[in-house]
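FORM 7B: Structural annotation worksheet

SECTION A. Query
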Amino acid sequence: MELEERKVRLEETREKNSHEIKLMELEILKSEAASKSKSLEVDWGSKVSLAQISALSAVLGGVATIVVAYIGGAFSLKENEQAKAQALELKKQEFSLSLLETAFQEPDDRARARRLKFIVDVGLLDKLKPDEIRKYAEAEEERLDSGDTGPSLIPSNEGLVPISLPDTTLNVGKDDGFVAVLSSSSVIASKISKLLSEPEVIEKLGEFGALDSKDRFAALLAQSAHETGRFRSMVENLHYSGSGLWRIFRRHFASREDAESYARQPERIANKVYSNRLGNGSEESGDGWRYRGRGFLQLPGKSNYEVYGALIGIDLVAEPDLMAEPQVAILVAAAYMSRTKRSGRTLFEWADLGDVMMVTKGINGGTHGLTDRTVLFERAKAALNSGLFDEHPIVAEILRRQNN
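SECTION B. Predicted structure
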């Protein structure tokens, strides 16, 4: 173990020295340009999300093309000094992006996370958001430490493609509503959009603070879309294989063989893994199946049905199937996000800060599906901010609250 640690330190030292030499070369170029003109600033604007990080590899190719075009004289600029300053900024961005690409080329998930943290910690990123990148790296390490064998939160270098938001002016019709950017079914999108036009629903969502900002409402829609498979599945899918049970619910089974004996038996699985917790009785009581995950956030457990049923004025303990009805599910989801806290803030308060990771942890318990949740959040925000739906009753209510 000590030998491996020494090898890692040696590799990091070599990498740091190499990067420092490149930085010195860039500083020389910068000093030459600064003596003649002020460097141009490139505004990278919004927060770097995991979806945007996935796109960096493609951006790198574009940056390199611009630099080559400049060197070859393809640009006709009025001021040569200004061009030098701009080229410097592009080269610095290219250098930063190349470091990320190198990290994505690491052979395994933990190595990618370790490399990203190193790059951030030694200050080698320019014009990016190092704190956000480090956050994803730490989340990946947390995922691996928990034994999660699902997909990595950090992209590998294979198959990286730009992830862009849909063109809301072309892809979203007013009949489908803004929900269309979150669902592949125009029928489902239209149904949800009409539901969100109902005065009673708008009033109740307002009481839970879901309409205090577009980011809150976008987070509510995005998390709901992810949990329900784009609003298609309102009841938890418990059709697990034996290996799936052993991987996800290991602590509830005595052995792998025990888990295999429950495979592909949803009712038995629910009664087993949800027994004696979340307000449920024993495995024999049947509470696990009766109060399995339903609704937009797939909340399981008798205690959740009792608490959130009381908040929205419906006896969900007596009629648990109502949790799967969209008009009930949206209110339960809003109530949950208004009450549930992580690190001292409610999930809606984290949404106001644009922190999809903390919202996800409050719903999922971890960071499973963070990439998809982030993309859905950005899509929902794009639609709500497009101006196309300002006349929709619920968007109009959000705007009214913001202007008061």
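SECTION C. Observations
The longest helix spans residues 2-34. The chain has 19 helices and two strands.

SECTION D. Sign-off
Analyst initials: ____
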